[in-house]
Design goal:
Rossmann fold; alpha/beta; about 375 residues; 13 strands; seven-stranded mixed sheet
């Protein structure tokens, strides 16, 4: 990866494509994230924005947060949390939520930060606090931010798991309150929440009476407009790393373009296709022919588990080739019928047969065979 710092910037030998959980550059082939991370830092983090990364499942949100944590580490203290670590019971009331949150927060800070005495004392006080309200918790969080040697960034993944709980909406409202007063009260410099849904649409109930007045606790969030889908160029860069390691001979840009057309750059689908390509296709299935403008496939399997001998893709056309050894007319006719079936499967009207005849009185040459609407061009050698 070409990122300015940490192992995300080192040139490691990758091993496999990944479709399960977050991707790690030491062991997985990955699309380069350096441009994405730079844009998030420049346009959102450095400007002190509070924002939500809301995209579909397996769209690279967790991987992006994981990369951001290290990418920002020189300039910020990043506290990265995952709300999947808070149980349903811990959302039941304010005290159980604050206890769970402070535990996770303190663990995250201890894991990633070398703290000076003032900050360590503030974190320890937060961790030891029992049955504190959200207001008290935010007061202690503010004290930690004040004692920190660098601005603090809070990142929370899987916020969807909390969105149906009133205590979480109250938590967002408290974040909003401190955000609005941050010139007077030190608080997180930037906050990043990640989930499938846009929690800007959550409503905070202000009154319990019949009026049921509502207001959004997250209307302070900046619109996150960074593209998370992969471009054809990004896919090609990832495939080039794979090609360097494996030497398949594939036309990297052509394959990347095809993958993009089929997936529209959806990260999971891109990885899934690449994983299938790596693990399921024969070793020579991606090998180019004729100046890199076509591909051939040996024993390509049809959906009914039958296997053709050779399929050639070249300049937008497909050629089906059957290889046979001469064993008499009856066997030969069965081979012609089989080729006709393959032509049906591939929606082609013309196929090719190369027959090897080892009889001393063999007749060599090229002939044209008609089988219904199918045309077979046979070469006997």
């Amino acid at each position: 990866m070409e990122i300015s710092q940490g192992h995300w910037g080192q040139e490691e030998k990758n091993e496999a494509f990944n479709t399960e959980g977050q991707c790690e550059p030491e062991i997985h082939y990955m699309v380069r994230l350096d441009e994405r991370l730079k844009r998030i830092k420049d346009q959102f983090i450095d400007r002190g924005k509070y924002f939500v990364i809301n995209r579909g499942r397996q769209y690279g949100k967790t991987t992006t947060l994981y990369a951001m944590e290290e990418y920002l580490s020189d300039d910020y203290i990043v506290v990265s949390m995952d709300f999947q670590g808070i149980s349903t019971a811990e959302y039941q009331n304010e005290f159980s939520f604050t206890k769970a949150f402070t535990r996770m927060f303190a663990e995250a800070v201890h894991e990633n930060t070398v703290m000076e005495d003032d900050m360590k004392s503030a974190v320890d006080l937060l961790k030891k606090s029992e049955k504190i309200t959200l207001s008290d918790m935010f007061y202690l969080l503010s004290e930690i931010c004040k004692a920190a040697p660098r601005p603090m960034v809070l990142m929370i993944d899987e916020v969807d798991s909390a969105s149906n709980n009133q205590v979480f909406v109250d938590f967002l409202a408290m974040l909003r309150k401190y955000y609005m007063k941050r010139r007077k009260k030190t608080v997180f410099y930037s906050v990043v929440l990640a989930g499938v849904y846009d929690i800007k649409n959550l409503k905070l109930k202000l009154r319990s009476d019949e009026e049921h007045q509502y207001n959004s606790p997250w209307n302070i969030a900046a619109d996150f407009d960074v593209e998370m889908a992969f471009s054809a160029d990004q896919i090609a860069a990832m495939l080039q790393e794979y090609e360097t390691d494996h030497g398949t001979g594939m036309d990297v840009r052509e394959v990347a373009g095809e993958i993009y057309q089929y997936t529209s750059g959806y990260p999971y689908l891109v990885s899934a296709l690449c994983k299938l390509m790596d693990e399921r296709l024969p070793d020579d299935a991606l090998k180019p022919i004729i100046n890199g403008t076509g591909n051939y496939y040996i024993e390509a399997q049809t959906r009914d588990a039958k296997r053709t001998d050779v399929v050639v893709d070249y300049l937008g056309e497909q050629f089906i080739v059957e290889l046979k050894i001469w064993h008499g007319n009856e066997y030969h006719e069965r081979g012609e019928a089989q080729l006709a079936e393959y032509l049906d499967y591939f929606h082609q009207n013309k196929g090719y047969m190369l027959s090897f005849n080892f009889n001393k009185k063999k007749e060599t040459g090229i002939k044209i065979i008609r089988l219904g609407e199918k045309t077979i061009i046979e070469a006997v050698v």
